[in-house]
Specification:
- By secondary structure, this protein is an alpha/beta fold.
- It has 2 domains: 55-282, Aspartate Aminotransferase, domain 2 (3-Layer(aba) Sandwich), CATH 3.40.640.10; 285-406, Aspartate Aminotransferase, domain 1 (Alpha-Beta Complex).
- The protein contains 16 helices and 15 strands.
- The strands form 4 sheets. A 7-stranded mixed sheet has the order 4-10-9-8-7-5-6, sandwiched between helices. The chain has a 4-stranded antiparallel sheet with strand order 11-12-15-14.
- Helix 7 packs parallel to helix 8 (189-199) and helix 15 (374-389) packs antiparallel against helix 16 (394-406).
- Bound molecules: pyridoxal-5'-phosphate.
- Pyridoxal-5'-phosphate is lined by residues 40, 102-104, 107, 131, 133, 179-181, 206, 208-209, 232, 243.
């Protein structure tokens, strides 16, 4: 096989490995022919995909630009410096680490930079939308640290700020974590900063979900308030699958050492190049408009679902996220998800605050990238409710989904 010129990925794969090529085409077809409502997903651009599939994947680059443990890093050093500079400028941060392999790796590194095993950490409890890395017993976080969970108000579904303050005063945590996989409202970072300062705790913002909205100016930034901000690059931010850490200069060295060599080996230079591409895209007025549309769509979707009879957590949303209890439509979230999947509406179940049954978690990042707007959100809510109620015949609903997505191809051509 010739390696003298860059491979035309799809063609090369079709020739070299038709079996795998078939799988990739099948997944592309699945993504294009069903509705992607998983809150953490998006469609990254062809430019991001090109960087991901580039020969930078071949390069070993342990360490940081200018201080690598491998030779031949002079070109990839430029790529990483570019990614770091773009991230710093996009988020107004003094320091950015773009090597974290995932959101979870970013959180692991943040803990490694600030904590010792056995330290007490205050974080949103898992039943209220905390992530696995916020103290799940199945995760390193729950095994190595002493997590104290805070919750949300039973009536409103909004974070119980009084409880946060009381628990902080009682337990004097070494760190407080704010951030969630499902919380649809803006987080009051100034409040968390104030409590952290009062009890002498570090503040870690796990902004994996809203960081893309922050980039586009559609959500408040945790950067001025948190000691460390952890994020993903593949959710609303629409970059490659990966993580990122932002912090002030005073923690820069500790954070960098917590990523490499403490928790990771060689940096994934193709992913870092793709992150640079995504940061460049996110700095444009088009991306800012995209994030505003993401939120506008989620608001309409939440209102339409409520209109259909679902109980929408917190009564609405400030972000791309909507969580809802479909119980009034006759089934719980798990059954609803199965019915919806059969009809081509792909979304997640989630825990519901103060309920034993599961709810539904949806997001508008992917459908908005496809170009869908308010009108389509109303249509999606009606489709969803019909399928969940069992009044819409599955094959018929599947046809309607196909009809809807056909007008919004994620990768035209
Ligand atoms: C998505 C998410 C993560 C984890 O990201 P991965 O890339 O899946 O490891 C961590 N924290 C929060 C709050 C998230 O939403």
């Amino acid at each position: 096989m010739s390696v003298t010129h860059a491979p035309q990925t799809a063609d090369v794969l079709a020739r070299q490995d038709p079996e795998l090529a078939e799988i990739l085409l099948g997944e592309l077809d699945r993504q294009a022919s069903t509705l992607q409502l998983i809150a953490a997903e998006n469609f990254c651009s062809p430019a991001v995909l090109a960087a991901l599939g580039s020969p930078l994947a071949n390069k070993y680059a342990e360490g940081y630009p200018g201080a690598r443990h491998h030779g031949g890093c002079e070109i990839v050093d430029v790529a990483e410096r570019l990614a770091v500079e773009r991230a710093k400028s996009l988020f107004g941060a003094e320091h950015a680490n773009v090597q974290a392999h995932s959101g979870s790796s970013a959180v692991l590194a943040a803990y490694a930079a600030l904590l010792r095993p056995g330290d007490t950490v205050l974080a949103l409890g898992l039943p209220y939308g905390g992530h696995l890395t916020h103290g799940s017993p199945a995760n390193f976080s729950g095994r190595w640290f002493d997590f104290v969970p805070y919750g949300v108000d039973a009536e409103t579904g909004v974070i119980d700020h009084d409880q946060v303050r009381t628990l902080a005063r009682t337990h004097r945590p070494k760190a407080i974590v704010c951030g969630s996989i499902a919380y649809p409202r803006h987080i009051d970072y100034a409040f968390f900063r104030e409590v952290a300062d009062e009890v002498g705790a570090y503040l870690i913002a796990d902004a994996a979900h809203p960081i893309g909205l922050v980039a586009g100016g559609a959500a408040p930034s945790p950067v001025p308030y948190a000691d460390i901000v952890c994020a993903t690059t593949h959710k609303v931010l629409r970059g490659p699958r990966g993580g990122m850490i932002l912090c002030g200069s005073e923690l820069a060295e500790r954070v960098d050492r917590a990523v490499f060599p403490f928790t990771q080996g060689g940096a994934q230079m193709h992913t870092i190049a793709a992150k640079a591409v995504a940061f460049g895209e996110a700095a444009t007025p088009e991306f800012a408009a995209y994030t505003r549309q993401v939120v506008a769509n989620a608001r309409v979707l939440a209102a339409a679902l409520a209109e259909e009879g679902c109980v929408v957590t917190t009564g609405g949303t400030d972000t791309h996220l909507v969580t809802a209890d479909p119980a009034p439509l006759g089934v719980d979230g798990r059954t609803a998800r199965g019915r919806l999947a059969a009809a081509g509406l792909v979304l997640d179940c989630c825990a519901l605050p103060h309920a034993d049954s599961r709810g539904l978690r949806l997001g508008t990042a992917a459908v908005t990238t496809q170009g869908m707007a308010e009108k389509e959100m109303t249509r999606i809510a009606a489709l969803l409710a019909g399928v969940v109620r069992g009044t819409a015949e599955s094959a018929r609903a599947r046809e309607e989904v196909r009809d809807l997505v056909d007008g919004f191809p994620p990768y035209p051509g």
